[in-house]
TrEMBL record:
Residues 164-288 form the NADPH-dependent reductive aminase-like C-terminal domain. Transmembrane segments: none annotated. SUPFAM superfamilies: NAD(P)-binding Rossmann-fold domains. It holds the Pfam family NAD_binding_2. PANTHER family: CYTOKINE-LIKE NUCLEAR FACTOR N-PAC, OXIDOREDUCTASE GLYR1-RELATED. Residues 11-157 form the 6-phosphogluconate dehydrogenase NADP-binding domain. Keywords: Oxidoreductase. This is 3-hydroxyisobutyrate dehydrogenase. GO terms for molecular function: NADP binding; oxidoreductase activity.
Length: 298
């Protein structure tokens, strides 16, 4: 248990599943929080556990030097705090949004006299407070210093830069990777079903080889960062052939072929650009060229 002063260390606004998990994790480690939610029923379990519930957003903010917000999005955060005095406060935004929204909210908060820290939670509610929960943060180092103690009782904290949009950018990068992989898994699950095999077996296999998959992504990240795509162990053309094979199986089995069709079409763009013998990470060249063309049309 920590030894703290008798005043509230932080206010937590927003008690959805994630907000409740954050509050429970901090309170269980002795942090003195006050919480608020638009519907008081969601605060009842925390109140029963001895966590003070503020009557209003203004009351919660006034009672705490650090204000942590975990609501639907950035506009909802701004709407909550629009009429509240923020001078001298540390505002920690844990809602999901774009890097541009983070930059705009940081400027808005700083204009109102607050220090701003943007945060991206890389965990589901059941993981909060445990070893697999992470919060990426960016923005004011002074805000980080003020909030790091209470945030550290919720998850492992990593500061990724003073640019307010950095944490949100990493969050979106993770979401892109995660949901792209999940769509691939769901197609794989349908493939298993079409062959009368257990989907749980595929899930177990992927869990077992997760470190290998993670290493492949790390290597691709290094390749893109340094612009090195030569002498691959598996070429971009092999990736296209694999996706083409998945599409052929889908047609033979009579299952949905939209995922392999999309992936094969993407890799085929790399082949058309003459990148077939380079590493799969060379697909970044195709995406960069498309971005440049789109920018030229604007």
């Amino acid at each position: 248990m920590h030894s703290h002063s008798t005043t509230h260390e932080a206010a937590l606004l927003g008690l959805g599943a994630m907000g409740v998990a954050l509050a429970r994790a901090a309170a269980s480690r002795g942090r003195r929080l006050t919480v608020w939610n638009r519907t008081s029923a969601k605060a009842a379990p925390l109140a029963a556990a001895g966590v003070p519930v503020a009557a209003s957003v203004a009351a919660a903010v006034a009672a705490s030097p650090v204000v942590i917000v975990c609501v639907t999005d950035y506009p909802a955060t701004r709407a909550l705090l629009e009429a509240v005095e923020l001078g001298g406060k540390t505002l920690v935004q844990l809602s999901t949004g774009t890097p541009q929204e983070a930059r705009e909210l940081a400027a808005w908060a700083e204009a109102r006299g607050a220090r701003y820290l943007d945060g991206a939670i890389l965990a589901v509610p059941s993981q909060i407070g445990g070893p697999n929960a992470h919060i990426m943060t960016s923005g004011s180092r002074e805000a980080l210093a003020a909030a790091e103690g209470v945030l550290g009782d919720m998850a492992a904290i990593q500061f990724v830069g003073e640019g307010p949009g950095a944490a949100a950018a990493l969050d979106l990068g993770v979401l892109s990777t995660l949901f792209g992989a999940l769509l691939g898994f769901y197609h794989g699950a349908r493939l298993m079903e079409s062959e009368q095999l257990g989907v749980d077996g595929l899930g177990g296999l992927l869990s077992a080889i997760a470190p290998t998959l993670g290493e492949m992504i790390r290597i691709d990240g290094e390749a893109i960062h340094h612009g090195r795509y030569e002498a691959p162990e598996a070429s971009l053309e092999i990736c296209w052939r694999s996706m083409d094979l998945l599409g052929r199986h889908a047609r033979e089995a009579g299952i949905d072929a939209s995922f392999p069709g999309f992936a094969a079409a993407m890799f085929h763009r790399g082949l058309a650009a003459g990148l077939g013998h380079e590493a799969p990470a060379a697909m970044i060249k195709v995406l960069r060229a498309a971005s440049a063309q789109e920018g030229a049309r604007r």
